[in-house]
Amino acid sequence: MAMFDLPLDKLREYRPEVAAPADLVDFWRRSLEKARTDDLSATFTEVDNKLAVIDTYDVTYAGFGGAPIKGWLHVPARATGPLPTVVQYFGYSGGRGFPHATNLWAQAGYAHFVMDTRGQGYSAGGGSGTADDSPYAGLNHAPGFMTAGIGDPETYYYHRVFVDAVRGLEAARTSEFVDPDRIAVTGGSQGGGIAIAAAGLAGLAGIELLGCAPDVPFLCHFERALQITGRDPYGEITRYLKGFRDQVETAYRTLSYFDGVNLGRLATAPTLFSVALMDSVCPPSTVFAAYNAYGTASAREPAKEIQIYSHNEHEGGQTYQQAAQLDWFASILQTRD
């Protein structure tokens, strides 16, 4: 794959007009307030993860519509807490999987909370098993999740997922192992897009995050993505609109409520992004659009960094980025006076 998007100097200055709906904040405030009418009912049950240095707890809590959302909470073995915490969201098709599969941040000494993504998890298997049992899940859509309920922001698939993500923060904060004042969010691809959304919406739920670390994030600047890449998962939207030719304006209006450019503007926590300049799944210009807009609606724009991988595709930095995150989390999650 060659570099196909804007040159790096243009990407650094790329600030497109991504129109936010006038009721964006009110929409999300109402959504989170409605979610809180359901008892969070967060439970943490220790499981045998087959590991000697990590303890794992099977998590269940009430997400959008009161639906049960699964997760894992990993902590260093015999930890007593409260610990600085990293909350992780997964990429498209991913899920929490087996309890031994994803626990890097617990290895680094943090509490590590992972959220299953409703309806997904088919590439992870194992303990993934959170259903998307919403009546809107079966509305006309292209195969996949990107266009499920796209006719209205209320029914759109990511309305449910983003509420689940914020409720996951609330659930994590109820654990004895979690320091509620020292939480950061992270994720790659779809997980990066969810992390941006969680960072933007946390304040509406009264939660102050210390950091947001999205890797090669998805769900950013939808319109640009559809113009320059045919790769899935964005391609699902193209196929839908190829058939439903009269739904273009409606679809873009819905997507504007979930765009990482618009939600990232609301964030107040420092951020560490990553981008790969040969990424045709999440094109660099869509990532930079979100990065350059991140935190700009705040009274005081947060500190921002971006790691750039010039010759990589959607795999991004992988272990190089993990090394950068280990240093970054250590700097932002240290004990505050």
TrEMBL record:
Source species, domain of life: Bacteria
A Pfam family recorded for this sequence: AXE1
One record GO biological process: polysaccharide metabolic process
Amino-acid positions noted as binding substrate in the UniProt annotation, renumbered to this chain: Y92
InterPro entries registered for this protein in UniProt: AB_hydrolase_fold, AXE1_dom, CE7
Boundaries of every Acetyl xylan esterase domain copy: 1-329
Protein name: Acetylxylan esterase
